[in-house]
Design a protein that fits this description.
Elements (H helix, E strand, L loop, with lengths): L13 H4 L5 E3 L1 H10 L7 E4 L6 E4 L15 E3 L6 E3 L7 H5 L4 H6 L6
Antiparallel strand pairs: 1-3, 2-3, 4-5
Length: about 110
């Protein structure tokens, strides 16, 4: 998202609070977490064989309550903005969002 001209994230949290309860993760995400942040894997349900693994990340992995929000989103104290608790290790699907100005508009992201 950083390289989209005219886009600026407002940290509103919408993309992590709505529809982010279950995120699809990739083999590359899994390999990174195994190497650098194994605690993240506690919230990932793996499937597939090594080299072709995928996974689903979310609170429901532990049988937690259904929600729309990602397990890693956190509100800044005293202000209406949010941050990702695993930002340096966030999955590819989050790094790519939004993929374009049109994508941001289509998904009601206020960064445009
Ligand atoms: S919805 Fe857009 S502006 Fe809001 S946190 Fe997500 S990327 Fe940033
Ligand atoms: S991993 Fe981080 S960036 Fe991705 S949805 Fe969760 S809080 Fe948002």
């Amino acid at each position: 998202m950083d390289d989209i001209p005219g886009f600026r994230c407002t940290s509103c949290g919408t993309c992590c609070l709505e529809g982010a309860a279950r995120l699809q993760v990739t083999e590359d995400d899994i390999a990174l977490w195994q190497d650098q942040a194994p605690h993240i894997l506690e919230f990932v349900r793996l499937s597939g064989r090594k080299g072709q693994r995928t996974g689903e990340m979310g609170r429901s992995v532990h049988g937690g309550a259904e929600t729309t929000r990602c397990v890693w989103i956190k509100k800044f104290p005293g202000r209406d903005q949010y941050y990702c608790r695993i930002y340096p290790w966030r999955p590819r699907v989050c790094r790519r969002y939004p993929t374009s100005i049109e994508h941001a508009r289509f998904t009601d992201c206020p960064g445009v």
